[in-house]
Each structure stands twice: as C-alpha cells, then as structure tokens.
Design goal:
Strand content: 5-15%
Shape: elongated
Strand order of the largest sheet: 1-2-3-4-5
Helix content: over 70%
Amino acid sequence: MTGMEIGAMLLPWVVALAACAVAWNLARGQRGHASQEDARELFAEDFKQVYEDLDAANRSLASMAATLNALHTQTSGLAIVEQQHFESVQRSFDQAALRVDGVRHEVSQRLDANRDSVEQRLDKVRETVDVQLGAIRTDNERKLESIRMTVDEKLAATLNDRLGASFKQVSDQLEAVYRGLGDMQNIAAGVGDLKRVLSNVKTRGILGEVQLGAILADILTPDQYAENIATKPGSAERVEFAVKLPVEAGEPVLLPIDSKFPGDTYEHLRDAMDAGDAEGVAAARRDLERVIKLEAKDISSKYLSVPETTNFGIMFLPFEGLYAEVVDRPGLIECLQRDYQVNVAGPSTMAVILNSLQMSYQTFAFQRRADEIQKVLSAVKAEFPKYQAELRRALKQIETAGKTVDGIINTRTNVIERKLKSVTALEDEAQAAELLGIEDIDSE
C-alpha cells in the first residue's frame, strides 16, 4: 500500500475533523455573541490551522509511506531469501531421500545375502541335528534294551524270592495250623475231662470251695478268717469259710460264706440258650431260681446264729455267668435277703466285699490302738517339763564352760604369746610338729 493510497483513505477523516472544528468554533462564537467578522477570522484561522495540520499529516503520511515501502522492499527480500532457503532445504530432502533409497536398497541386498547364508547354515544345522538325534535314538534304544533285560532279570529274581518266601510262610502257617489243631484237640479232651469233673456234684463243690479259698487268701490274713468251722452252737454242720469280724469286747463275730454251684441246672440253661429254645430257657431259669432259694435256705438254717454270727450269710457263686443269671432274675436278690438273710456274690463282688472288710479291720485296729496312743501322749506330756528343766541346766553348764574358755583365751593365751615373742620359731614345720607330737594327733 503506497502513501497516496493511505492519504486518500485518511482525507475524508481530516475534512470531517476540520468541519467539526469550524462548527465548534462557530458555536463558540455564537455563545460569545461575537461578530461575523470575528467568526470569519476565527474560521480562517481555524481553516489555516486545519490546513497546516493537514499538511503536517500529509508529510507524516508520506514519511510513513516511505517507511512502508522500505519495509515492503525488505519483506520482499526476506521472502526471496526464505524461498531460496526453502528450495535449498527441499533439495537437501531430495538428496537425503535418494541416500535413504540407496541405503534401503543396500540393506535389502545384505538381508537377502544374510538370509541365504542363514538358510544354508540352518540346513547344515538341521542335517547335523538329524544325525545326532539318530545317534541318540540308537543309543537310547540300546540302553533301554539293556535296562529292560536287567529289570526282567531282577523281576524274575525278586518274584522267585518272594514266591519262595510266600510258600515258606504259607508252609509255616499251615504247620502252625496243624499244631493249633493238635492243641485244639488237646483242649477238647481237657474240656471233656472238665465236663466229666463238673458232672460230679461233690467235685463241683470242691471247685467252688477252692476258688473261694484262693480269693480269701489273696485279700485277708489267715487270722482274719476260719475254714470248715461250726458257726451254730450245738450243731455239727460246718461252713466252708467264716470271716472273723472284731468287736469291742469278747470273741469276734463270724460271717458265714458258703460256695454253691448248681451245675446241672445252669448247664440246662446254657444248652437251651444255645439251641434258641425260648420255652426251655424260661423253664431252666425257673428251675435255677428254685435251686438258688433252696441253697439260701440251707445256708440260713445251718450256719446263721446271732450273736455268734452275723444276721446274714453270703452265698458264693464261682462263675460270673451264673452270678449274672441270678442277679438278672427280677426280685430274686430281694427275696433271698428278706426271707433267708443271704446275700449272693460272684468272684468279682466277693473280692469287693472282702476289701471292704479289710478296711474295717484297719479302722478297728486303729480304734483299739487309740487308747494306747492317748496313754503314751499323756506320759510324754508329764515328762516334758522335766525334759525342759534338764535342757536348761545343760545350757547353763555350756555357757559356764564357754566363759571359762574365753577367760583362758583372753588371759593365759595372751600372756603366753607375750612370753614367746623373744623366742625364734623353727622354720621346719615338720620338725616342730614332730617335737610337739602334733603329727601323731593329726594322723589319729
């Protein structure tokens, strides 16, 4: 844009400003009631001033136009330089693209060459690996065959050993079974002998008596019970065993214990139970109850006599199974205690009863010794003041002896030490001890 173009653009604005200034001056002249000549002069001055201002503005615009033209020229030069620089950069880019194409082409050729070389090497490696795998496969097959043969041999040997051991074990077990069968035959023969023994009433009674005597001997001392003793005055009947219960004064009270074994009745009961005969079992149990009552009546009438005996006796049943059958009968134990004053005991309950009696023996013995212990304590209490007096007198004598020893140490010993200060001691301690006879004293 040239300076004339800028002036043309600014001219309407300048004219408008001048008109505004003239109008303002006219208005100011009217407000001051000035004359028309003054107004013309004022207008001429204003117009002159405006013209001068316009001239100054025109000069300023011309200067600005010159500056703009210079700037335009400089800008055109810079544009040309930038265009040249851009073309130079573009040429550099084109050259770099050409170099990149060359490098890419060279790299492609090298990659193709390397690929061919790698493929050749891979072919060689593949061939080598195939050969080595074949050798390894052959070696493995040979080793597996050797291992299979070794395993077969060991399995055969182990199988033979185990079969031999198994046959030997089976043979030993069969031999043990044969021996067991022989033992079973001997046991069967022994059972038959025992059955024949138990079939005799007298033998059964002896068996129960022996068992009862063994229990009494294990728990009580010989002076605490009697064997085959007549417990009822004026009667020749003798009970198998009687426990002696001590009393405060007089002879001990006897507790009759008699062994009973209704073997036939109990055997019939077992046979009926093994056969599953309910009616036979019921009948056998009724017979057993009847026999037990008769035995209790026999004990009560033959062996009980108060005050020589207790007011009850004990019926000993030598087998736990028989005792369990008697206890299981409803009301039988109560009937025996109420009507016949007889208690029933098996092997285990008999031991419990005797242990309880043993405790009562110890309690009674302690009570009997209580009076003696009281007398001894009374005598000790009477003698104790004399003992204290003797101790006090002995203490006084010890204190007197101590004072005498202190006097000897504090007086005579000090005097002897002062006297011996001028005497030279022997350096040989052994010789000094020998002269004084101290060595002999120490050796003693």
